[in-house]
Automatic annotation (TrEMBL):
<dbReference type="InterPro" id="IPR008571">
    <property type="entry name" value="HerA-like"/>
</dbReference>
<keyword id="KW-0378">Hydrolase</keyword>
<dbReference type="InterPro" id="IPR014588">
    <property type="entry name" value="ATPase_Atu1862_pred"/>
</dbReference>
<dbReference type="InterPro" id="IPR027417">
    <property type="entry name" value="P-loop_NTPase"/>
</dbReference>
<keyword id="KW-0067">ATP-binding</keyword>
<keyword id="KW-0347">Helicase</keyword>
<dbReference type="Pfam" id="PF01935">
    <property type="entry name" value="DUF87"/>
</dbReference>
<dbReference type="GO" id="GO:0004386">
    <property type="term" value="F:helicase activity"/>
</dbReference>
<protein>
    <submittedName>
        <fullName>Helicase HerA domain-containing protein</fullName>
    </submittedName>
</protein>
<feature type="domain" description="Helicase HerA central">
    <location>
        <begin position="10"/>
        <end position="75"/>
    </location>
</feature>
<keyword id="KW-0547">Nucleotide-binding</keyword>
<dbReference type="InterPro" id="IPR002789">
    <property type="entry name" value="HerA_central"/>
</dbReference>
């Protein structure tokens, strides 16, 4: 299923859309000088995608904390927590799928790098069961992945640069989609910028930055001058999630506002020169004695960030109390979810897509079909997926024999359970043993060799026994269940 995020309009007045699923797989780089509209662009992207995907924002200036009021993001003030607490909090963020804004305002450059590195490390090192899709937005990315050493310590720089490199190069397999914004490409580490496949280039003036922007967009050097003429809020887009050719777009409006100030001109007060002298110079000539600072009560201890995460929920209207669903409603809901899962698996290449991607697609379809109730968590979804791939009928799935097969499958690693259940269903129905290609597809691969190695591994674990019949065709028996498949061609 394709989810299009409307970013704005093109020069011809058509809607400029961004493919959210493609973005999750290919990452995004935004460049533009100060005042070009980068933060406005990031805010538009986060507001439009907030209902669809979890988000984390690394915010060095506290500009994006206003997302909390409208979209329920949890704001974490990094200055109130140490690095270890932020790393634990990041792990909880992924476990509970809470969208967050890490506010680094109030920290010096060294502290911002250390705290951002700890938080990104916690997101990256989360348990495999929590690898659901997540947008990780880093504003002013040149602060966290500088191209050259600065005034910060080498330790902080290495930690921050390593965390950013992991996000952009290895984060995709963990469900993390990096979105980085920078004022100058020349200040951003090349190994971080090079991992992005989508680009939005805004107004810039320095020759070296215009030349790099033109190179990234596949434009000729003589066309680089156009970046000087782009108005505020206008960008040139390129990438699989945006456009196959460089496409000028103007970013649309946003619902939330930044806490920063805009350079609007304000008339000066009409103060006579004599009054101005009295206001300024008199105080300098005879300063008033400093008043004694009042005694203040000690500051309260910082809030427990883990307690905040446990209580965090998106800001939604309080639902009315409803009666518990009846058995018929639960059965209907289960059947509808099964129908949706079978529709997903019927799509081309579905067998080879990551479980986290399939789970996100499943959640979106539940919304589209207005299926209420709490959706299954990823472990339960994996079991549903394994049963659906095995092709078990409803009547057989309700039987005692199949429940015993599922219990034996639960003792195996999750990625092998689908193959075991496929063999169990085949043996239960006395069908021919699946071919190597069928087993490979259930395992999520196209390699017949990996399918054969998996069968050998299952046999080593005492889960199955393989044997040939008189004509050399393969038979698989399931240990402890007393079932075996009919003879089947391995290469069929």
């Amino acid at each position: 299923m394709t989810i299009g995020i409307e970013m704005g309009v093109t020069n011809s007045g058509q809607a400029a859309t961004l493919d959210l699923e493609e973005l999750l797989a290919t990452r995004l780089l935004v460049q533009g000088n100060s005042g070009s509209g980068k933060s406005h662009l990031l805010r538009r992207l986060m507001e439009q995608s907030a209902p669809w995907v979890q988000q984390a924002v690394i915010d060095p200036e506290g500009d994006f904390v206003t997302l909390a009021d409208r979209f329920g993001h949890l704001v974490i003030d990094a200055a109130e927590h140490n690095e270890a607490a932020l790393q634990r909090a990041a792990d909880r963020v992924r476990a509970h799928r809470v969208s967050v804004v890490l506010n680094l305002e109030g920290l010096d450059a060294d502290g911002q790098m250390r705290h951002a590195a700890a938080f990104l490390g916690g997101l990256f090192d989360a348990d495999r069961d929590h690898w659901s899709p997540m947008l990780v937005v880093v504003d002013e990315a040149q602060l966290f992945a500088p191209a050259a050493a600065g005034e910060v310590s080498d330790e902080a720089r290495r930690a921050s640069l390593g965390a950013m490199a992991n996000l952009m190069s290895r984060g995709r397999k963990r469900g993390l989609a990096g979105i980085i914004a920078t004022q100058r490409l020349a200040k951003l580490a090349k190994n971080v910028a090079a991992e992005a496949s989508n680009f939005l280039m805004g107004r810039t003036f320095l020759d070296i930055d215009m030349a790099r922007a033109a190179d990234l967009l596949g434009m000729e050097r003589r066309q680089a001058e156009m970046f000087r003429d782009l108005p505020r809020g206008a960008f040139v887009a390129l990438g699989p999630a945006l456009s196959r050719r460089p496409l000028p777009i103007r970013i649309g409006t946003v619902e939330t506002e930044s806490r920063g100030t805009n350079p609007w001109l304000i008339p000066l007060p009409q103060t006579p020169a004599e009054d101005a002298a009295a206001l300024v110079l008199a105080a300098a000539a005879a300063p008033d004695p400093l008043p004694r600072a009042p005694r203040r009560a000690p500051a309260p201890p910082p809030p427990d960030i883990l307690a905040q995460l446990a209580q965090a929920r998106p800001a939604v209207a309080t639902p009315r109390a409803e009666e518990a669903p009846s058995a018929e409603e639960l059965a209907e809901r289960k059947q509808r979810m099964g129908d949706i899962l079978r529709q997903i698996l019927a799509e081309p290449e579905a067998s080879f897509r990551n479980v986290s991607v399939l789970y996100q697609d499943f959640l979106v379809r539940l919304r589209i079909h207005a299926i209420g109730g709490k959706p299954p968590e990823i472990p339960a979804f994996r079991r549903m997926l394994a049963v659906a791939r095995a092709g078990v009928g409803e009547e057989a799935a309700a039987g005692e024999a199949w429940r015993e097969a599922e219990a034996r499958a639960n003792a195996l690693p999750e990625d092998t359970q689908g193959v075991f259940l496929l063999l169990a269903r085949t043996a239960l129905d006395r069908l021919p043993c699946p071919s190597d290609a069928t087993i490979a597809e259930a395992y999520g691969t196209r390699s017949a060799g990996r399918a054969r190695r998996l069968l050998s591994w299952l046999e080593e674990q005492g889960a199955i026994v393989q044997r040939p019949d008189a004509s050399g065709r393969r038979i698989v028996a399931l240990v402890g269940l007393g079932w075996e498949t009919a003879p089947g061609e391995a290469a069929g």
